[in-house]
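re the bet — no i am not wrong, look at it urself. input seq straight from the record:
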Amino acid sequence: MSTLFADRISTPIGLLVGIADDRGRLLALEFGEESASRWKDLRWEARPLAPVATALQRYFAGELRQFAHELAPGGTEFQERVWQELQRIPYGETISYGELARRVGKPRAVRAVGRANGANPIAIVIPCHRVIGSDGTLTGYGGGIERKRALLALESRVAGAQAVLTA
């Protein structure tokens, strides 16, 4: 079994806990320290997650729009497909759950797409916050609606335009 590393990362929207394997792949980026309790035998060490912390600092400073870390979120085949599609949503833009379902080739699976979106273990880096209700409402977010609103506002401000909803 490989060693899992964890670190606490302070951000403008609160504490995140990053978890990486011994190959440097990011497994999780979750809100709050209590989220790390589900992981076994974590080695709390900043060094393996330093590149993630630096990238997050740059993201929140408006200097980074696309993360380049190797990811290993470990979901089902369907979840992985949804998470890959999330990474294709342009910075500063939003799409609906229905549009996300269409993009993964399952236009009638809106609820399943919503569940996969909600199961995303790598918040911000896999930008599940860019998915909103078809009527433009901010619905569901593991970190809370206020954090989702803050992330979308940051991206909209940096992108220089209002977030765009693609039906």
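see?? DSSP finds five helices and seven strands in the chain. told u. also The chain has a mean pLDDT of 91. so pay up
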